[in-house]
Each structure stands twice: as structure tokens, then as C-alpha cells.
Amino acid sequence: MSLPPLVEPADELTVDEVRRYSRHLIIPDVGMDGQKRLKNAKVLFVGAGGLGSPGLMYLAAAGVGTLGIVEFDEVDESNLQRQVVHSQSDIGRPKAESARDTIKGINPYVNVVLHQERLEAENVKDVFSQYDLIIDGTDNFATRYLVNDACVLLGKPYVWGSIYRFDGQASVFWSEHGPCYRCLYPEPPPPGMVPSCAEGGVLGVLCASIGSIQANEAIKLLAGIGEPLVGRLMIYDALEMQYRQVKVRKDPDCAICGENPTVTELIDYEAFCGVVSEEAQAAAADSTITPKQLKEWIDDGENIELIDVREPNEFEIVSIPGARLIPKNEFLMGSALENLPHDKKIVLNCKTGVRSAEVLAVLKSAGFADAVHVGGGVIGWVNQIEPEKPVY
Ligand code: ZN
Q1: Which of 9, 139, 179, 221 could form a disulfide with 250 if both were Cys (CB 3.0 to 4.6 A apart)?
Q2: What domains are defined for the chain?
Q3: What's the 298 CA to ligand 1 centre distance in angstroms?
């Protein structure tokens, strides 16, 4: 399936632009017409992180006239392993401004528009309506459903990508011509089931593979060339070095783009995706302690058993003194429960307090009524108690 170009061509290219884009201009499929369309194009990247870095840099180099960036975060040292649009000297700066400076360095003809705000149901339509096409480089389900629904309601193409460890996925969702994200994933996964890259890690170079697929698809749609990734899901395995394709069909029962849609306006996506499950929220409600409280208990010699529920790799990077490692899965499978002491107060911690809350719910229902978990996890501990230790 080929689609007509998304963007009308600009009136002309300047002499400087002709020189700059000459390697595009001599490709018959792009040519002067395609390059003029790129010049007139307005593309929004949600997130200037792992996927946004290669995506934004290549779209800038390719001559996309206007690049919008939605990003409110700041550059952290742990970003630099994969977010190549930012440099060492950008640590602590707003990511949006750092990305803009890099883009301007690559191609001064690009008009960069910054949206330094969190994307929400209240502002998403105002932002998206200024662009021809939306690319999502974020790492959370609430944003993906928000981006998808806004794109369906506005009739915009949505170029999606996702990365985790050595695995990547990409597709183009466009309800006028094919399926949307909800057709592929009608329901978000249960909270805590799918680890984020912050929890599970990601190979830095994987971002380049998936981010460049996203940039490539954007260019094809803008110029109306090739076979867009509409109705197809690309699955990339960097360890096996395999690309697979899966057909994705439009779901007639889709909640937003189906025949009888039940979602006709934007909803509360945080609630829809549930950052923490209801069980975990209930368990943690009156059983959360601060890192400072834990420090006092340790100093006072309280009778506690501190259990870290993260993965061994994470434990190796940094841990709270005296913590014993029992990964979360051993609690979910039940095998960890029999070895827990009943004569000590169980204190759980993880990276930031999400996984430990899930395990807390398991412990409470297994009879460990006085168990607690550390809000903010080992990151909170390092920030407040042992700032000389590394965070990740
Ligand atoms: Zn759909």
C-alpha cells in the first residue's frame, strides 16, 4: 500500500539548500519535489531521549523544515549512554534546549519549536494540531495511549517505537488508513508487569536502530514514497540480528477507531494505565517508610529484615547496607515466602518503590501484616542518606 504525500511542497529551495541536500535530490524517489515537501513539513517528536536523539538528528539533517520537541526533563549523566543528542556539558540542562542546540548545529535551516511541558489530555490537541505527523519516543504506556487517542481524534499519523534491552518494535498507526495502537494493544499491561528501560535497561545502540526506522517512516509519509509501515509491526532482535514483520489488522471492535467507538474524547490516561496496581496502593497506603526512617531503625538496631526485590545486576550497582537480595519474581512465584523470618519486621526496597509496593501486597496477603516498604527505594536512600553512592 502506498499513500499520497502528507505535505505540499514548499515554493523553492535556496541555492544553499540545493547544495546541502544534493544527495537527496539525485535520488529519483525524493528529488526536488520530495525535498520541497520535507522543507514544508512539521514533525513533532514526543521525547528527546533514546529514540528522539537519532530521530531528531536525522530528521534535522534530512531537511524537515519544522521540528517540535515535547520534553520537560533535564539531562542526567545516565542518559548519555544512549541519548546522543545530548553531551557531557549538557548535564543538568533542559533536554529540549540541549536537543535544539544540537539540531541547530547540524542544520541551521530547521525551525525548532520547544514544548517544555508534560503532555496531558488538556494540552495534547493544541500541540498536535500544529504538526503534520507525530513521532513517539517515550517509555510509558499512559503517554502512548494519550498520543494514540489524540492522533486518532485529529486524524494524524502516529509513528511509534519501543525499546527494551536488545529488543525493539516499530509501527505506523493511522486510523484513516489502517490500525491504531489500541487495535494492537487494546488494554495496557497490568501495572508492574512490563518493566521500563529505567528498571530493565536498554542497549544504547538499539535506540539508533529503532529511532532511524521512525525517522525513515516519517520521511516516507511526508514525501509520499515507498511502502509505509501502516498495518505492519516490525520486531527487531539485536542479539539474534533478526527483523520480523507481523501484520496488524484494524480491529472492528477497537475502542477508539472501531465501528462503535466507546472512547470519543480523551480520558485520564494515568488512571487507565495505573502506575501502581490497586492492590499495591492499598498495601502501601499505611506501610510506607522514608529512607530516613529506615536509617534510624538501622542505627537503633531495630529487629528488621531488609529485603531488596530488584534484579541481581541492579543490586550489584548500588544497594542499602545490610539488604538481602530476593528478586520480585521469587515472591510472585511464591518460592521466596517460605524462607522469610516471622520474628522480624520485613522491610522491602526496590529502585524507586513501585516493585516493592507490588511485593508488599503479596506479603500482606501471606500474613506478614507488619511488613513495610521504603518509599523512593534505593534511589531515595542514596539521595538522602548516602549521596556519595551511584544512582542509575
Ligand atoms: Zn484502533
Answers
A1: 179
A2: 15-273 (3.40.50.720), 278-384 (3.40.250.10)
A3: 52
Q: Which three cell numbers stand for residue 69?
A: 520537541
Hey, is 45 helix, strand or coil? strand
| Beta strands at 304-308 and 345-349: parallel, antiparallel or unpaired | parallel
Return the SS3 of 74: strand
At residue 202, φ and ψ (nearest 5 deg) are: -155, 135
CA of residue 257 to ligand 1 center, whole Å: 4
Reported as a single tens digit per residue, the pLDDT across 245-304 is 999 999 999 999 999 999 999 998 987 887 677 788 888 888 999 999 999 999 999 999
Q: What is the 8-class DSSP label of residue 77?
A: G
What is the set of active-site residues? 197, 350
Q: Is the pTM of this model over 0.85?
A: no
| Residue type, position 253, single letter | D
Closest CA to 45 of 123, 155, 147: 147
Burial class, 81, CB count within 10 angstroms (exposed 0-12 / middle 13-18 / buried 19+): middle
Ligand 1 centroid distance, CA of 173 (Å): 8
Cα–Cα dist 3/133, whole Å: 14
Distance 264 CA to ligand 1 centre (A): 12
Torsion of Cα atoms, 279 then 281 then 286 then 290, to 10°: 130
